[in-house]
Amino acid sequence: MEERLSYFINKRGRVADPAKRDQIDWEVTINKRNDKNKGVALAKETFKDDLSNVGAFIPESFKLNDQALTDDEVVDPATQGLRYAFPKDFGKTQAKISFSTRVAEPDVTQKVSNTARLEVENQDAQEAKATVQVNRPLSISKSLTAARVDAGSGEQSLMWTIAAGAPYQSFGPTWIGDILSAERVGQTAPKRIELVAEQSISGEKDSWQVVAVETLDPAAARSFPSFPADKTVPVPIFLPIPSPCMTSAMRGMMARLPPSLAIPIRL
Known about the structure:
- It contains one helix and 18 strands.
- By secondary structure, the protein is an all-beta fold.
């Protein structure tokens, strides 16, 4: 009985430096097995990647199972893509191929997609596609962090967190605001509104730094707190804005708050 072979190919990529976004590191894994789930040598198979719409190959970045290969061995002169034929004596049943490409326009490129191919004799080529997000779209989210009661005064408060932007991304001068408007019968105005602005370049859990604190007058119909000139947040940032809204009697309902609340930041 003729032996049936199965090929498993997977490709993934990542931005090498999130602050620069000018290089993508790719990794392709290949596995060849027979119908008894035993490994079969990859000898004489051919790996290809035409690098279409990806960017130029970075010289001397190609590695096979963590061993560097010369550009002459892998770069196709006609297409400037990649081509590697596993030697006849290649006895391994698995292979890890890694290489890097250059992002031509890192500031405007949103994402990059690419397909690797394994050409197999007497069978259809096996393919694996990967997509890498180079620039992240502007996003914003809001969540209720906590409900608190001051043991001394009995004041009740809600802590909200607004997370906007993305680590290492610049979105230009940006206003982040929160429309805090509610017409509820019998509710009183909050005693105070506080804004705590924090930033994190990396987005790591313990990397937050307070850059501005504002206590606002809730009686003002519109309040746009100032942002200290010496505390201007440099681009790029990832900025959450927790804002405790102090009320005299919450009872699980929103108090009457100003029509809008905003703090200027630079994303």
